[in-house]
Specification:
alpha/beta; Rossmann fold; Alpha-Beta Plaits; 3 domains; four-stranded antiparallel beta sheet; globular
Length: 365
């Protein structure tokens, strides 16, 4: 598979980051792109990421060796119908959606299973849009690859190698396996986080004491409940059967816990926590997973005027931008007074080193 021209339909955070990575590692590759926002497209051309801005999804894309579909899942399916009418058989199609069954079913219905390879880069940011795209967004992040049934093995190997050359960690899976895995490790956790928030909202007193005390650990484990409702509505609608399987198993676990609590089964409760702790501690922290990683640490600080301002000034002097900073009032399960959150791994490591240089006590998680 010789790649000389790559097309992008959609150029947001993921599409933009992939385009920038390709242009950084393969400056000779020609990139053309289409998206609804003309201003963004023109900015990408000015930056040198995109070589040709397209007015529509039309015959201009027929020159592509590879096309990335980076629009929402339902929109990508519609673009496939357009592309089929003029694309040569040599053009490989891929997408970046977080659910795969819907798009693969559309591909099968259109007779494109010999040239479609699904993709899911497990990377992202709270910041969206092309303006926040960066070439290293997918670096050391799992990139799930789900080939169509009739794609030649050699083509899959070449696309996998190309993805790895962008510094991602490709993992080839059946699309049905992908959707079940992400239902368990991403989609259900989002539902659980949101349901925990709803639980506190429903059971809180008129004085909202639960809300007042909930900061710290509770806010950390429910962080993902702040995600886009529109995006998660679409995820639930396109992967409902797998989410239901995971949810039914989870309900069984909750029922078992309910019985153990009713029967005051201390041995069973202990085994539950011990098994969860051991398995959780065995999960590697060397690459990004489907849930966005938080770059936060905790810092000891004496309660004195100007303390937070001094810390912020030290970080600013090092060129480090803070995402969030706050005092932990509920420290029952925390070791420090201050929680400091950064935007990415590089800023996190730099901030920890800088503050330790100034003899701050830092707790990493």
């Amino acid at each position: 598979m010789k790649i000389e021209t790559v097309g992008f339909i959609g150029l947001g955070l993921i599409g933009g980051s992939l385009a920038k990575a390709i242009k950084m590692y393969y400056p000779e590759i020609r990139i053309l792109a289409y998206m609804r926002s003309r201003d963004t497209l023109e900015a990408a051309v000015r930056e040198g990421t995109v070589d040709q801005a397209c007015e529509a999804v039309d015959e201009a894309f027929a020159s592509c060796d590879l096309i990335y579909l980076c629009a929402p899942v339902s929109t990508n399916a519609r673009y496939l119908e357009k592309l089929k009418t003029f694309l040569p058989d040599t053009c490989l199609l891929t997408d970046v959606g977080s659910t795969k069954t819907d798009i693969h079913e559309k591909v099968r219905a259109l007779g494109l299973t010999d040239r479609f390879i699904g993709g899911h880069p497990m990377a992202g940011s709270e910041k969206t849009g092309y303006e926040n795209a960066k070439p290293h967004l997918i670096e050391n992040a799992y990139y799930i690859i789900t080939p169509g049934e009739k794609v030649p093995a050699g083509t899959v190997e070449q696309f996998t190698a190309f993805t790895a050359s962008l510094k991602a960690l490709p993992l080839v899976l059946d699309y049905r396996q992908h959707d079940f895995i992400t239902a368990c490790v991403s989609h259900l956790p989002h539902l659980i986080a949101s349901s925990l928030v709803e639980l506190v909202k429903d059971l809180d007193s008129p004085q909202e004491l639960m809300k007042q005390i909930a900061a710290g650990g509770f806010k950390d484990i429910t962080r993902i409940a702040s995600s886009s409702p529109e995006m998660w509505e679409q995820v639930c609608m396109t992967n409902s059967s797998n989410i239901l399987k995971a949810l039914e198993h989870y309900q069984g676990q909750l029922e078992a816990l309910h019985r153990q609590l009713e029967e005051k089964d201390s041995k069973g409760i202990h085994s539950f926590f011990a098994a969860a702790r051991d398995y959780r501690n065995s999960i590697p922290d060397t690459s990004a997973g489907p849930l966005k990683k938080v770059y936060a640490f905790y810092c000891d600080m004496v309660d004195e005027a100007g303390g937070i301002a001094t810390l912020a000034t030290i970080l600013a002097s090092g060129g480090i931008s803070l995402k969030n900073i706050g005092i932990i009032h509920n420290r029952e399960f925390e070791e420090a007074v201050l929680r400091v959150e950064l935007y990415d791994e590089e800023a996190y490591q730099k901030a920890v080193a800088l503050l330790r240089k100034y003899r701050y006590t830092i707790y990493e998680r």
